[in-house]
């Protein structure tokens, strides 16, 4: 995920620091159809970001997910 943070989020917020990411508030794993009418697996997450200078709601969506593993 860090490549995405570097290229997308840090362009919008140059002071972005992963230490200000809060816990994942939402996690969804679901099936949907893509533009070719193929049924694919997707994963979507919502992660709040709160620093002294910025607050944001980061929404990530991954398509064609082959598996999900959660370790505690």
Q: Strand order within the widest sheet?
A: 1-2-3
Q: How large is the share of residues in beta strands?
A: 35-45%
Given helix and strand content, the structural type is: alpha+beta
Please give the share of residues in helix: 10-25%
Q: Using only CA atoms, what is the Rg? A: 14 Å
Low-pLDDT sequence parts: none
Mean pLDDT: 82
Q: How many β-strand stretches?
A: 3
| Run of helices and strands | HEEE
Compute the separation of the termini in Å: 19 Å
Q: How many helix segments?
A: 1
* Coarse morphology: elongated
Main sheet characteristics? 3 strands, antiparallel
Report on the architecture of this protein.
The protein is of the alpha+beta class. Helix content is 15%, strand content 40%. It is built from 1 helix and 3 strands; from the N terminus they run αβββ. It has one helix at 2-12; strands spanning 26-33, 39-50, 55-63. A 3-stranded antiparallel sheet has the order 1-2-3, with no helix packed on it. Strand 1 (26-33) and strand 2 form a beta hairpin. The two termini are 19 Å apart. The mean pLDDT is 82.
